[in-house]
Automatic annotation (TrEMBL):
Organism field: Adineta ricciae (Rotifer)
Residues annotated as transmembrane: 206-227, 234-255, 286-310, 331-353, 441-466, 487-508, 555-574, 594-616, 628-652
Species lineage: Eukaryota, Metazoa, Spiralia, Gnathifera, Rotifera
Protein origin, superkingdom: Eukaryota
Main subcellular location: membrane
Name of the protein in its database record: Choline transporter-like protein
Places the protein is found: Cell membrane; Membrane
Family designation: Belongs to the CTL (choline transporter-like) family.
Signal peptide stretch: 1-25
PANTHER family, per the entry: CHOLINE TRANSPORTER-LIKE (SLC FAMILY 44), CHOLINE TRANSPORTER-LIKE 2
Amino acid sequence: IPCCILFLIFIILFVILSIFAFIEGDPKQLIHPTDSQGHLCGSGEFADRPYVYFFDWTKCIKAFNIPTNLAKGRPFVCPTTQVCVHQCPNRTSHYKFQSYPSTRVCTYDVTDEQTDNNQLVQDGKCASYILASKPLFGRCVPEHIQSLANSVLAATDDDGRNKTIDGSDGQPLNGSKLEQGVKYLVDVLNLREIAAFLMEDFATSWQYILLGLGFAAIISFIWIVLMRWFAKPIVWLGIALFILLLAVASGLSFFEFMQLREKNDNQIFTEFKFVADANYYRSLPITWLVIAIICTIILIISVLILLVLFKRLRIALAILKEASKAVGYNFFSLFWPFIPFILQIGVLAYWAVVSVYLATAGKPIYRLAFSNLTNDSTVTHYGEICNPRTWNNTDGLSGDCIFWEYGYDPQVDLDSVLNGTGRHFKSFISFVNKNQWLPQLFSAFMLFWLTAFVIGLGQLVLAGVYARYYWDGRRVGIPCSSLCLSLFRALAFHLGTLAFGSLIIAIVKVIRTVLEYFQKKVKDKTGKVAKCLMCCCRCCLLCLEKFLKFLNRNAYIMTAIYGTGFLTSARRAFAVIVSNPLRLLVIDKVCDFLIFLGKMCITAGIGILGFFFFTHRIAGSEKYVPELHYYFIPLALIIVGTYIVASCFFSVYSMAVDTLFLCALEDLKLKEKNSRHELKMSENLQRVFRVKSHK
């Protein structure tokens, strides 16, 4: 009960944090570019100015090469004025040209009546030169940079003469300088362009993805239903199909490899480069050779495992047959895993929205940026917090106090930006400002806790259904009543048990996450011994997490049997596991392996069918296949989604096997303690556990 109350308190705190994030955050920051003052171009008062223009790209070259020890975590800051504009300039000009007044780009306080361009440029109010640009994700990027190479930039003035374009330093501009200045921004924006293509492919093919997932659900449902009456044949069929599909995948991959190798004059290794086009990798012989080798290795390992476990398969099949009867009787339990799955999606979606708002929460932060720093520079305050209203360039360096990002920092003076804010909310913002790492850590902790809680709820409800099926030999009530009663008992009596078990998992996950974060931060600053120790710690925590998940699952089964709390149930489950290690390994894990083969069989079948469809290899399907940039996006989503859907259906079987297994072991323990105890297990299970019949 105390843990249940603690769980509710943490949920309330998470809701409060969410409200703060929704008030302070603005996801538009991730979509719209910002100018030098932190205004969002294309939003609010600048809704009619969707693009941002950089006054002097050559300053970005020097800023890009600033030493990392002075950059303080920001890889690129261009210390040039950036303003929101209605449209990107379509003509190249210079402030000394006659055409400049019609193309000039200035700060917002410059009016059309101000015509002294020389003074405006000297004061930094207007750009000294204008470059014909094209919009790239809200940024005006100079056109035809690569074609200019090392040539000097020139443009035609209104008088018809071709004139050289000078930079802000008075030196002629050339294509190389501009290319270096734009390089980082273009690289980042190209990644966004690829992301846009991926989203476009998803928008084009989402109907086919849903169709594939629907087909996977139908196949999984039919598979489970058939196992009710034909458990052994279906399992053997699944094994055979899995082996056959692996063999087919290996054969097709080797066949593609041979054909491509012949086209490339029997060369396996051709010129390799990293590109975004998946068709390029598909045309390489080495790609299909790697796929063929991987499929062949998996095939060989699977066959060897089956040969080793062949004698134990009969026992596992008997357990699966008993589980099939339990699932068949409690037919509605087949649909239960979709409810926790939907809840997990809801938790993940809510956390993602809160994280986005939380990541974009904050006030404008301005930092010092210089364009002429070197490794031996004596300037140590690069990147420090500054106030654009009060900052003066007293060092004589070409530095500016420019907008850096929206966020919180202990050095930021909040009094000037929190006028009119309520006292309690202002205190909360001040706390976050001093401990900006805490909200993100708490948000991640709540994600781990809530997802572990939902998973535990799903396991406990199913355990209650099959525990009642085992111990209630009369099978009282209609089948759906067991699911409803198990859900009621879980919500009414065992919320604290679920909260406690999920809390342990969440704590271990948070520790792992923090360790991984610190490892990424210090990976270039630590020696081999420290890296080895860090990897050992991560490995130990991963093993601990896996063991705790396994223990939790069995503890929830004990809770479903006896109705005890988490610690008592975990102690009983641990005692059963320790006293029956061979039985657990042979029976339970072999059943898990057979169930896994069933899931992989369905996933591989749907994946191969999807591959044939999207690559136009199914006769008559060409007119239905959509035009895509990367066909692997819908294919990957279908494969992953199929595995998730199949896992939802087969998780019912897995939980039925584990519950019946532990119930049988507890039944045998009661028989050992009291010879007059009447075993509840069926004759089929008695043969599995080699119990002599006393009839």
